[in-house]
Amino acid sequence: MEEKRKTGIVERVLSGIERAGNKMPDPVMIFIILIVLIILASWILSAMGVEVVNPASGDVVQVQSLLTRTNLIRMIEEAVTNFTAFPAL
To answer: Membrane-spanning regions, if any (predicted)?
Structure first.
C-alpha cells in the first residue's frame, strides 16, 4: 500500500510557485510583450495629449508616440547600442 504523505504549508506554497512559474512564457517573449505594450501605451497617451511637469526643471513634457516614422527609425538604429550598453547584460 502506498502511504499518502502530508504536505506542509511551505511545500504547498513552493509547489504552487513552481506550477505558476512553469506556466510563464519564455523570458524573451515576456520582453517582446512588454516592448509592444510600451509602444502601444506611448501611442495611446500621445493621442490623448498627456503631459507632465518635470519636477527638476519645471518644463512641461508631452508624451511622444513611438509609432512615428522618426521614432521607429530611431528604435531600429539604436537597438544594438541600447542592448549592449544595458548594464545588466
So the answer is: 28-50
Report the pLDDT value the prediction gives residue 89, as an integer from 0 to 100. Answer: 56
Beta carbons of 38 and 66 less than 8 angstroms apart: yes
* The pLDDT of residue 5: 66
Residue 88 and residue 31: Cα distance in Å, rounded? 14
Instruction: For residue 72, give the nearest of 43, 29, 34, 32 by alpha carbon.
Output: 43
